[in-house]
Amino acid sequence: MSRRTVAKKRPVAPDPVYQSRLVSLLVSHLLKKGKKSIAYNIFYAAMKNIAETTSQDPLEVLRQAVLNITPKVEVKSRRVGGATLQVPLEVKADRGTALALRWLLIAARNRSGRNMVSKLSAEIIDASNNTGAAIRRREETHRMAEANKAFAHFRF
User: From start to end of the chain, where are the E strands?
Assistant: First the structure.
């Protein structure tokens, strides 16, 4: 991490089917060992599964899920006088989306089920309904920030 200049944000190309940058971000987080075509196949199958299950637009279900998972505040460690404090900070939009996608995929991978398609679609549906492991993760983060609100004046 250079102290001299801030790294520029690279533009994210939208995916070929939904023309959505959010989908591209999710697929790039989903892929393993550089196999993006397999990641796209898994994702599109999950979206098809969501459309059949909920009879709603799957992209809207995904957007709602990511919106529900996105944290508003998080805690970061900061050393103050020999003690390490958990300082609550507001989350910027880009970081919030990145955290939401990461938590969504972690929750989907840890879920019990037959394959990643069913696990991912179930987790997205749960997150859009404000339930599921990813939502619990967000609430846990918010609780930790609330508990350490007294250290908010130590912000960076």
Answer: 73-80, 83-90
Give Cα separations from 89 to 73, 83, 93, 146 (angstroms). Answer: 5, 18, 13, 11
Packing angle, helices 21-30 and 36-54, rounded to 10: 120
Checking if the pLDDT of 64 tops 70, the result is: yes
Residues 24-52, mean pLDDT to the nearest whole number = 95
DSSP conformation class of 129: T
Give the best-scoring range by mean pLDDT among 9-13, 32-36, 41-45, 80-84. Answer: 41-45
CA distance 134 to 26: 14
Nearest to 68 by CA among 147, 137, 116: 137
State whether residue 37 is helix, strand or coil: helix
Decide if 66 contacts 100 (C-beta within 8 A). Answer: yes
Residue ranges of the domains in the chain?
Answer: 21-154
Question: pLDDT band for position 154 (50/70/90)?
Answer: confident
**CATH assignment, 21-154:** 1.10.455.10
Predicted TM-score (pTM) of this structure: 0.91
Rounded to whole angstroms, the Cα distance separating 36 from 20 reads 16
